[in-house]
Amino acid sequence: AAGCHGALSARRSAKEAARLRLRECDVGDRFSHLPLPKASVLLPLMVRAGKLHLLLTVRSMQLRRSPGEVCFPGGKREAADKDEIDTALREAKEEVGLQPEKVEVVCRLVPGIDKMNHLVTPVVGFIEDTFQATPNPDEVSDVFVVPLEYFVKPLTYKPLPYKTPSGSLGRMHCFTYRDREHNVPFKIWGLTAHFAVLLALVVFGKRPTFEVDYDLDNLLSSSESNFMKLYTAVCESQRSNL
């Protein structure tokens, strides 16, 4: 029983430490007033073998937008949603059968902007490691978990160059993760990788093995200022396209 107790306390301590760090980086509804169409994703954290893991989905090949890409459960805000948290929980239930009451919501992190110019809010929540996903085949073709630490110490990583809304050249994170269960490589990139990296930096507070555009000593303020630069650039490019 001692071993069992040890495993339980390891799980608790991994969760406790993460919870405290995440709460310090909770932005609440600070960005909710921005006049962009809204979307949310749920970043579902679970503890397995004393380590934090992140649940991800693979988009169905039938979808018009980004078929077969890895993403977090999530989607566009609907009129009945009270806030970003509501949207993330509703979408996770629709996509993978995760009941909202089974999620311990911890915080909202600094949002991102997707290629459709939606303001996407990442909602972080803990779920039980026993959760069995029931993917909705119209939306999700697969579900897998990745150790959170992979997003600061990856085995396979390469930055992809892309053009930012302001016209300069940026770097996009791109990870390849092969899990034992599926034995297929999953490519995690774009906004999904961006949120996973931010989450891992907040939780572990250590320097990753690759370059990031944050001041790691002031992670929250530098991620907010990065976001505001992006938001301003997006607004300007929208104006010039009118």
SSE layout and pairings?
Layout: H1 2-24, E1 38-48, E2 51-59, E3 70-71, E4 74-76, H2 84-96, E5 104-108, E6 112-113, E7 119-126, E8 140-147, E9 156-157, E10 160-163, E11 169-172, E12 174-178, E13 185-189, H3 190-204, H4 219-241
Parallel strand pairs: 1-7
Antiparallel strand pairs: 1-2, 1-4, 2-3, 2-8, 5-7, 6-7, 9-12, 10-11, 12-13
Structure description:
Its cofactor is Mg(2+); Mn(2+). Its EC number is 3.6.1.77. Belongs to the Nudix hydrolase family. PCD1 subfamily. Monomer. One of its GO terms (biological process) is coenzyme A catabolic process. This protein has helices at 2-24, 84-96, 190-204, 219-241; strands at 38-48, 51-59, 70-71, 74-76, 104-108, 112-113, 119-126, 140-147, 156-157, 160-163, 169-172, 174-178, 185-189. The protein contains 4 helices and 13 strands. With 242 residues, the protein is of the alpha+beta class. β1 (38-48) and β2 (51-59) form a beta hairpin. The chain has a single domain (7-240), classed as Nucleoside Triphosphate Pyrophosphohydrolase, CATH 3.90.79. α1 packs across α3. The protein is globular. 31% of the residues lie in helices and 28% in strands. Strands 1, 2, 3, 4, 5, 6, 7 and 8 form an 8-stranded mixed beta sheet that branches.
